[in-house]
Design brief:
There is one protein chain. Helix content is about 25%, strand content about 25%. Strand 3 and strand 4 form a beta hairpin. The chain is of the alpha+beta class. The chain has 3 helices and 11 strands, in the order H-E-E-E-E-H-H-E-E-E-E-E-E-E. The protein folds into 2 domains: about 90 residues, no CATH class; about 70 residues, no CATH class. Helix 1 runs parallel beside helix 3. The strands form 3 sheets. A 5-stranded antiparallel β-sheet has the order 5-11-10-9-8, with no helix packed on it. The protein has a 4-stranded antiparallel β-sheet with strand order 1-2-3-4. Strands 6-7 form a two-stranded antiparallel sheet.
Length: about 190
């Protein structure tokens, strides 16, 4: 049975989600390290009436994701403010993040990208260890803690780890390979 959440808890979770997406967009803009014209994107993830209003997305001097507009009163506006004024919604932010991941960086640096796989680890009974499909294990090159997309984390409580040899993303408890990310972000 699904747990019914109260209004305040839902507000708190929505605010946390919003903050996480804005931080992730900022991280991608930091990787790209230049202003991204919206014409570079596969599509503009804003409602039709706003598409002519926004020209570019970039990190401002404070490191906040911001939008370059052609509005007289606001030549630039922080993405969070644009969102808070209900001009764009949560899905627009997620699409923006997804689109930014396809943009090459200033020095040609490409984004983290996870390709989904379904494979299972093998078990080495003599050493009592799980062995990645590539042959790596904890006594060889080892693994690092990551999120579901294979991006590296400092938090050791994650249920996923990343193979240092081949980039496979492994769910610890199920000993299942979920995907591969050859260029993970590091948080």
């Amino acid at each position: 049975m699904r747990r019914i959440k109260g209004v305040e808890l839902l507000k708190q979770e929505l605010l946390s989600y919003q903050t996480d997406v804005i931080i992730s967009i900022g991280h991608e803009l930091q990787r790209i390290s230049r202003k991204v014209q919206l014409t570079e994107l596969a599509f503009v993830p804003f409602p039709a009436e706003l598409r002519d209003e926004v020209n570019a997305i970039y990190l401002d001097l404070n490191g906040e994701p911001s939008l370059e507009t052609n509005l007289d009163e606001y030549a630039e506006i922080e993405l969070l403010d644009y969102f808070s004024n209900r001009k764009i919604n949560h899905w627009d932010l997620v699409y923006m993040l997804e689109l930014l991941k396809a943009v090459g960086g200033k020095n040609g640096e490409m984004p983290s990208h996870c390709r989904r796989l379904t494979e299972f680890l093998s078990y080495h009974p003599e050493f009592d260890i799980q062995v990645c499909t590539c042959g790596n294990h904890e006594r060889a090159e080892g693994f690092l803690v990551c999120d579901l997309d294979g991006n590296l984390l400092a938090d050791a409580l994650s249920p996923y780890y990343w193979c240092k040899r081949c980039g496979r993303i492994i769910e610890k408890d199920k000993h299942t390979v979920l995907g591969i990310n050859l260029n993970p972000d590091q948080y």
